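Tip: read the tokens left to right.
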């Protein structure tokens, strides 16, 4: 998957139209997601991402554990948006990623996330 594929998938699964807004949302979401995942998985998943996004997921060690609210708060801080917008944007990014990666990659990532993250990952297109 290259940058254009990811941006297109995010746009098709959200109300985000501005490529700069999509870039900010993708960077913020992938950065915070990388903090949540355990060692190895972020790099494996990041290896499937465009080079510009891989470092967002490149973390080492056991993943941090924080609530879904904290996830959205962290995304909002990185994006410079309010929590409701951060939630919408993060869900759009995840829907785009789900559409752009192989099912086994998606499932491999899901098993590492707490059950409360279902709001983030089990979503239809976010329009």
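Filled-in amino acids:
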């Amino acid at each position: 998957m290259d940058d254009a594929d990811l941006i297109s998938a995010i746009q098709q699964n959200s109300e985000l139209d501005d490529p700069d807004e999509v870039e900010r949302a993708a960077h913020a979401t992938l950065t915070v997601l990388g903090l949540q995942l355990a060692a190895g998985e972020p790099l494996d998943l990041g290896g499937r991402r465009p080079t510009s996004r891989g470092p967002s997921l490149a973390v080492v060690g056991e993943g941090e554990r924080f609530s879904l609210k904290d996830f959205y708060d962290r995304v909002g801080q990185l994006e410079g948006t309010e929590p409701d917008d951060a939630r919408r944007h993060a869900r759009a990014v995840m829907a785009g990623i789900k559409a752009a990666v192989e099912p086994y990659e998606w499932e491999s990532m899901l098993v590492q996330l707490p059950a409360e993250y279902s709001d983030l990952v089990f979503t239809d297109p976010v329009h």
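Residues 3-121 form a domain with the Globin-like fold (CATH 1.10.490.110). The chain is about 65% helix and 0% strand.
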